[in-house]
């Protein structure tokens, strides 16, 4: 056929080419960019702006080629040929991408949605047919037809392949690094983490952390992992190791937000402590009222919280709270329609199941408090009403004062370590403390209130970022005399006696220091090294770096060597601390004596190594090495949670005067340079003891602290048959422990259905509200005035005229 014999395609063919090459790609792009239906169901075919430009290019290019063929115009054949070749390459690429969903598309052809996955294939067919017509049209053209030749098509396809390869280079490199980082060999894993920190894509890492990554492309990188793909659980660990942050700290991948975390989804127990802020949920008010008994070494505080929800959906407010050392929740209250409702205390499993049933199925008003590690609790309340609704709760905490020495104690304040609600910069925690003993604080925020010789008050408005600082501690003085209190929970006549015991750990022969090498620790390395220098030069001290490869290259021995190693270490990403703790346990057990492990670390936000073996070390080795955990920042720690209940664990956060001071103080006590003081409480029948004449009666909160210690003692035997006894004791004394929790329900019927009984309002600890104190004073004065008036009127009537 010569040039003059060329005829445009028939009308039916033109309509097919226009539909398959222009209309379908245009509809597919429009639907996906507006509804993200494929991204929310299978994968994201348009994960970035570059991919959007590629898919938009196809219908535009195909329309130009179709128009040129329809008119039979060979004047701009070169441009049409290049556009057709590029569209052909893009269509081939996306046809491969959509291969996995083609069978499903074939089953849903009756629906318009079923045609969308076929758009790349239809576009490819249209491009091939158009190319055939372009070749026929080129025979009557006087232009050079290089693009119509096989070499020209190959060149265009190579250009498209290079362009797509450049777009996907970051994802391909990241997938290769993830493959190395998930390898079974520790040195290879370490090399993979270093590679990802330098070359990896944070966005791709984040996508890989979800069950459906949202990525449809990265065909080149796919070949690295087709045999053994990296699972989402492995990707979550790698993300933490690379960035030092949990994957939930970042917003979910773009265009997949509604799939990965729907706005209306109820956040259950498995979502606890994930650091995600829920849209529209905030803390509207916070008030802490406390009474401190310096002589008794005990305080009681009530933290009243009001949550507000400005979104259109009901929300669950959730927070992990760091209690003062040794603190225990002894009251929980929820306001329902303005009326205060008290909690029921029961076994942990029972209260959690009750909360889930009432919150999810009935959508009513429960609040739940359970433990979340040593001296930490998890608070959950649902639902916070939508459209500006509020939910008010109160948490009562019985706290042993911190002994500095027999004559000086401190009261520390609770604070959030993790939460899913916003705290505005303008919101302050209103703190009010009352005591009979003199009080002081290094914080300029505290102001003295009205005081009498028998009653001292202090108050402060403390920003959330300041409440966990050392300066907010309140200092009190006391006389070192025995104290006692009645036991309100024992009807047969028991009392609690308390004394101060001092000790020096002379049995300690070795300290093993475990230092976390996460990025968050870099600014603290000098403080740690300075504190290490306070250890006597001849003392046996060893150190294990937390991001080890499993050999001895990370060890250091001797004070000077340890301090130098800390200063010169590399701090990056998030370190896995469990292998180092296992190594430290072996080192501490090598030498006779109950030696100590001092673990200085940032919050371990994600579990990367099974902690069961670590827990087993203490459960199977009675009187093993003491583990002192000093967490340097705020946040949930999964390792501490897993070790909850281990009696040898001493967990705290630096609160006194900074990390270097607290570490130095700890080292001085462990090496025998200073004494350690602690309160010792015993329960005895009144008939069997005589109270010393100099003893002082203290608050009955001593009974709750004794019960907490007794529950811990029972559980330390690691005998499952004793758990029931520990649960019964904790429930009777109305405290939240590792085996018990507290839950408040809305109605009496809900309590009956759950087999729970709320505590009697007469047995809960209370603190008179400041307004109530004023009201009582006014009422007392008014009553005195009435008595005076009555007596005066009687006197007047009895007078002789």
What's the CATH first level of the largest domain? Mainly Beta
- Average pLDDT figure: 81
Overall body shape: elongated
Q: Tell me the strand percentage band.
A: 15-25%
If you consult CATH, what is the topology of the largest domain?
Immunoglobulin-like
The number of helical runs is: 24
**Distance between the first and last residues' Cα:** 147 Å
Structural class: alpha+beta
Q: If classified by CATH, what would the architecture of the largest domain be?
A: Sandwich
Counted beta strands: 28
Question: What is the radius of gyration?
Answer: 35 Å
Unreliable spans: 255-275, 771-779, 796-801
Helix content: 25-40%
Task: Provide an overview of this structure.
The structure is a single chain. By secondary structure, the chain is α+β, with helices and mostly antiparallel strands. It folds into five domains: 8-148, no CATH class; 169-257, no CATH class; 275-476, Mu homology domain, subdomain B (Immunoglobulin-like); 505-674, von Willebrand factor, type A domain (Rossmann fold); 766-796. Helices cover 39% and strands 22% of the residues. The chain has an eight-stranded mixed beta sheet with strand order 5-4-9-2-1-13-16-15. It has a six-stranded antiparallel beta sheet with strand order 6-28-7-8-3-12, sandwiched between helices. α15 (525-532) links the parallel β20 (510-515) and β21. α1 (11-35) packs antiparallel against α3, α8 (150-181) packs across α9 (186-199) and α9 (186-199) packs across α12.
């Amino acid at each position: 056929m010569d040039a003059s014999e060329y005829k445009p395609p028939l009308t039916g063919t033109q309509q097919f080419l226009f539909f398959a090459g222009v209309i379908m790609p245009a509809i597919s792009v429009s639907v996906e960019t507006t509804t993200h239906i494929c991204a929310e169901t299978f994968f994201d075919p348009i994960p970035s702006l570059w991919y959007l430009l590629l898919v938009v290019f196809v219908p535009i290019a195909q329309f130009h080629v179709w128009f040129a063929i329809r008119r039979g115009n060979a004047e701009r054949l070169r441009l049409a040929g290049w556009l057709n070749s590029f569209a052909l390459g893009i269509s081939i690429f996306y046809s491969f991408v959509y291969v996995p969903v083609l069978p499903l598309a074939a089953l849903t052809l009756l629906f318009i949605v079923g045609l969308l996955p076929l758009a790349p294939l239809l576009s490819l067919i249209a491009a091939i047919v158009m190319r055939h017509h372009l070749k026929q049209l080129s025979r009557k053209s006087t232009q050079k037809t290089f693009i119509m030749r096989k070499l020209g098509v190959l060149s265009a396809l190579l250009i498209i392949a290079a362009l797509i390869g450049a777009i996907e280079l970051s994802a391909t490199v990241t997938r290769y690094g993830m493959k190395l980082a998930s390898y079974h060999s520790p040195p290879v894993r370490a090399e993979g983490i270093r590679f990802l920190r330098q070359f990896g894509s944070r966005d791709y890492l984040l996508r890989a952390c979800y069950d459906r990554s949202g990525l449809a492309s990265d065909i080149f990188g796919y070949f690295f992992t087709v045999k053994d793909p990296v699972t989402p659980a492995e990707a979550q660990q790698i993300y933490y190791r690379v960035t030092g942050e949990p994957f939930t700290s970042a917003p979910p991948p773009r265009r997949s937000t509604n799939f990965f975390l729907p706005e209306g989804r109820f956040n259950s127990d498995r979502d606890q402590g994930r650091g995600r802020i829920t849209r529209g949920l905030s803390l509207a008010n916070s008030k802490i009222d406390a009474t401190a008994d310096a002589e008794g070494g005990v305080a009681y505080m009530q933290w009243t919280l009001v949550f507000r929800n400005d979104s259109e959906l009901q929300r669950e407010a959730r927070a992990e709270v760091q209690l003062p050392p040794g603190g225990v929740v002894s009251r929980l209250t929820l306001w329902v329609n303005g009326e205060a409702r008290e909690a029921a205390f029961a076994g942990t499993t029972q209260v959690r199941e009750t909360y889930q049933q009432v919150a999810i199925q009935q959508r009513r008003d429960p609040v739940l408090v359970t433990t979340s590690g040593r001296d930490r609790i998890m608070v959950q309340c649902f639902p916070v009403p939508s459209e500006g609704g509020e939910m008010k709760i109160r948490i009562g905490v019985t706290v042993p004062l911190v002994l500095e020495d027999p004559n000086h104690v401190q009261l520390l304040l609770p604070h959030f370590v993790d939460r899913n609600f916003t705290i505005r910069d303008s919101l302050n925690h209103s703190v009010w403390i009352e005591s009979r003993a003199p009080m002081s604080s290094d914080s300029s925020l505290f102001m003295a209130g009205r005081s009498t010789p028998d009653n001292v008050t202090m108050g402060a408005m403390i920003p959330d970022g300041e409440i966990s600082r050392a300066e907010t501690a309140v200092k009190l003085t006391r006389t070192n005399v025995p104290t006692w209190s009645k036991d309100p929970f024992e009807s047969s006549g028991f009392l609690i006696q308390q004394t101060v015991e001092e000790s020096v750990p002379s049995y300690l022969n070795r300290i093993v220091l475990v230092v976390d090498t996460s990025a968050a620790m870099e600014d603290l390395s000098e403080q740690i090294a300075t504190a290490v220098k306070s250890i006597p030069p001849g003392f046996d001290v060893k150190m294990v770096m937390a991001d080890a490869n499993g050999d001895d290259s990370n060890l250091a021995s001797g004070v000077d060597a340890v301090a130098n190693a800390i200063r010169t270490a590399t701090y990056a990403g998030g370190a896995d601390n469990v292998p180092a703790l296992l190594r430290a346990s072996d080192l501490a057990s090598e030498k006779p004596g109950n030696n100590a492990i001092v673990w200085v670390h940032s919050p371990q936000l994600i579990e990367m190594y099974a902690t069961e073996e670590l827990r087993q070390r203490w459960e199977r080795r009675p009187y093993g090495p003491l583990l002192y955990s000093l967490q340097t920042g705020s946040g949930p720690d999964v390792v501490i949670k897993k070790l909850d209940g281990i009696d040898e664990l001493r967990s705290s956060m630096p609160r006194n005067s900074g990390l270097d001071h607290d570490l130095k103080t700890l080292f001085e006590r462990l090496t025998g340079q200073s004494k350690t003081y602690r309160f010792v409480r015993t329960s005895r029948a009144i008939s069997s003891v005589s109270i010393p004449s100099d003893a002082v009666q203290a608050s009955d909160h001593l009974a709750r602290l004794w019960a907490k210690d007794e529950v811990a003692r029972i559980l330390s035997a690691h005998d499952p048959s004793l758990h029931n006894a520990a649960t019964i004791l904790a429930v009777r004394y109305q405290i939240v422990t590792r085996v018990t929790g507290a839950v408040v329900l809305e109605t009496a019927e809900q309590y009956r259905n759950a087999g729970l009984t709320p505590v009697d309002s007469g047995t809960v600890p209370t603190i008179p509200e400041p307004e109530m104190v004023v009201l009582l004073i006014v009422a007392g004065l008014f009553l005195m005035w009435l008595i005076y008036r009555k007596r005066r009127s009687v006197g007047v009537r009895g007078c002789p005229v």
